Here is the input.
Amino acid sequence: MKELKIGNVVLDNPVILAPMAGITNFAYRKMLKEFGCGLVVTEMISDHGLIYGNDETKNMLYTKDEKPLSIQLFGGDKESMVKATHILCDNYDFDILDLNMGCPVLKVVKGNSGSSWLKEDRQEELYDTVKAIVEASTKPVTVKIRIGWDESSITAIETCKILEKAGVSLIAVHGRTRSQFYSGSTNYEIIKKCKESVNIPVIANGDINSVDDAIRVLEYTGCDGIMIGRGALGNPNLIRQLVTYFKTGERVGESTLNEQVEYCKKHYNYLMELKGEFRATAEMRGLASHYFKGFEGAKAYRGRLSQCKSKNDFMSVMEEIIAQNK
Ligand SMILES: Cc1cc2nc3c(=O)[nH]c(=O)nc-3n(C[C@H](O)[C@H](O)[C@H](O)COP(=O)(O)O)c2cc1C
Here is the structure.
């Protein structure tokens, strides 16, 4: 595949980890980097959280030796987003500034943020705001969008043209509308049209869960890369499979249950380093079951994992899983 360049940043490969609130913290990003991911993106960061110096926001921005890194910002108006851009550029070590213009969550769109930017009556404001952010940023600016607000308002193609004119370096398109949230199917036809409508790189996102999915989507849309969210959740090997395929054309197999246990333990350990035992255990109670989906006994493991209260509990379940499958 052609080299993917975002402003002055050249990616090793075109596999991008999708930003996911509550998931793509430093621990998870560090792990997926080890699997070869070309670019990782933080959880979405609130402009107001930055401006008011919110501790939780600062914690979410923890990063170390993680290159290239994209920070995703969300906000609902030009003034505060520009202010937040200055704070990020002056105080944090990162490579790309990504703007969240796709989040469907009610609380977010109520604040005029996320996919609210895709509304037809905001296109002038969108141009004005993104242009000001591009001017304020010392880093290349990218934007992540959905295809529109709802079925009757598919604005993505016009939005892409506006974003290109405003000076952004790349657009990632999740092929769903805001009103779809995560249901229904991804509309790759609109993603293809987005790609055809601009000269900057366009990344396809939505339901790419295997190498075959990636090949099919890239061939059909002509996009410059892929963004992977839920498919890599509990399956970091998917990133390795994709990266290996793009670099060498070779196919890496699925991971074994023992390997899944190792990945899950690694995720736990990285999370514990970042957030301490209590929070790591609480967060992994929900996340760990993804590693065992599709394996025999997955339901029982989920039950056991949801009861863990400490690292000891957690690691005992990991040992049990291995013992039961010897
Ligand atoms: C738990 C969760 C959290 C998410 N958080 C964000 C976010 O913070 N910013 C964003 O732009 N998209 C967010 N998304 C959307 C994903 O980045 C991605 O667009 C979507 O999941 C579709 O891709 P997939 O089918 O590969 O998962 C989130 C998705 C999930 C499932």
